[in-house]
Amino acid sequence: MKQGLHDLTGAGLPWGAARPTTPRVPPQPRPSEPASAPRERAAGATGARGEHTHSETPIRVPRAAVQRSSVRGQILDALRTALVTGELEPGEVYSAPVLGERFGVSATPVREAMQQLALEGAVEVVPNRGFRVVRRGARELAELAEVRALLEVPVLLRLARTVPPARWAELLPLAEDTVRAAGSGCPAVYAESDRAFHRAVLSLAGNEQLVGIAEDLHRRSQWPLVGTQARRGRTALLADATEHLALLDALASGESAEAARLVGEHFGAGR
Predict the structure, then answer these.
(1) Are 17 and 62 in contact (CB under 8 A)?
(2) Rg of the chain over CA atoms, in angstroms?
(3) 261 and 212 Cβ atoms separated by less than 8 Å
């Protein structure tokens, strides 16, 4: 389960500092040898002659950068969860320093994560204030559902004609996971399992670009509408998850018409 804002601890990852190096004096040429001899000896010891290894600087692992990326990824996951659950409310402005205090990290990884969410259309930049969560209405949700249907339905119908039943059976555990996630009543838990199921289905087409675009559209469609009354409850989540099982049955049996009807209803509900 992904952590929400209130679940994060104040402990950050350790940040390493580069160890200072002691200046080294290059070896002086011997009286009986040319000035280039020390370099040639070094090349012979560490590499083939002519590689000019004497001019290279040792590569140091950027520990701090790697750790910051890890922190940003954790923050991004937590912010996405908070968007799905409505903890980050549509229309509200959140500043990176304030959110950083809640996460127990500096404002930098929070700001970087928010900038990623801005690229995804979840938030918008408010100069000198922070980031405002975008207000979404029913029309936008319907448009997303239409685009997803136009993209995914033809692929699913083609897969229904070409993928053997045994491959569809392999996806049954993922469909069952969505039912269990829906039973938890947590929209963030269900959102993750829902995307995992759809991602696995589309992956059978062997088109990574398709999977990536569909994943982005799917994630956008999971953000709640304005107003708490628009959030989906446990009953709605269970109904959505049950459709996954029915869809798998239709695909495994090669019933293209039934699969088309089911997937059309699935997207038509804005899921």
Answers:
(1) no
(2) 27
(3) no
